[in-house]
Amino acid sequence: INKGQEITSEILNRIVEKNRHYTTQGKVADYIPELGKANPSKIGIAVVNAQGKVISSGDVSEKFTIQSISKIIALMIAVQENGEENLYKKLGYFGTDQPFNHFGNLDNNGKPLNPMMNAGAIVTTASIQGEGDLGYQKILAMIRYITKNSAINLNEKVYLSEKETGHRNRGMFHILKNSGLIEGTEDKLDNYFKQCSIEVTAVDLAKIGYFFANNGTRFDGDTTYKNIEIARLIQSQMLTAGMYEFSGEYSRTVGLPSKSGVGGGITVSVPHKMGIGVYSPALDEHGNSLAGYQMIVELSKLYDLSIF
Ligand code: GLN
User: Fold this and answer.
1) Can the keyword Repressor be found in this entry's annotation (predicted)?
2) Architecture of 68-196 per CATH?
3) Active-site residue 145, yes or no?
């Protein structure tokens, strides 16, 4: 164990090479047709260390869609605007044993189990105030702020592909609307499709991980959105459900609040310390990046990063 020692790019290079073979064992998501075009051999890892410095290895300039990782940003904004207590009248703090898009991710009263699965995330996004695409614009602006990367934008093709084939999400939206958990038009669902289609890199994800790990302080020290309560809430939700039905086992093997997306990214917060972002689009059976997960396991073990 290198506990307390600095993470270097040499170490990250070694981790990438050692885990590269996993890229051939997973499968790129193709239920959203446009995602199926990703190159499964891509692999990269980025760390923003406690000093806010970026260290990386592999395909860290490669762009991919953020997908479900956007759910933590939407949650942050929905809590800022509505307060945690009000928002969680419509959501639970539960984990799940079902896949991310399963209709069983609702409790006995029809409330989504948590904001990390699709059902809860659709409610979260719909709770962000404003007509039309304003909710989406707020999410995009927050991601640009956290990463200090104003070039971040929507991947139009992925967005249209999601919108066209997102029948499960559309079905869930209407069930939730029927239960009175969502107000407003299908624009609210469209904002969900759009937030999932925002393009980022592994470096951007590491900066997002750093932001929540450090109570809302940006990697360059900016404290505009510093908020300990919101950072605690979001990291706890990442830990219990951020890796979907794999979250329990992931807590055992990695022990860090993390959020994955079917685009192949995972963002990790090492509380009070740093952020990690990985990318590799070949996924395991839960919809988590296979090589990405293996790299995080290794880094966590090497530096004893688990919170437990
Ligand atoms: N846009 C994807 C969906 O709603 C996000 C899912 C994910 O990343 N797990 O199906």
Assistant:
1) no
2) 3-Layer(aba) Sandwich (3.40)
3) no
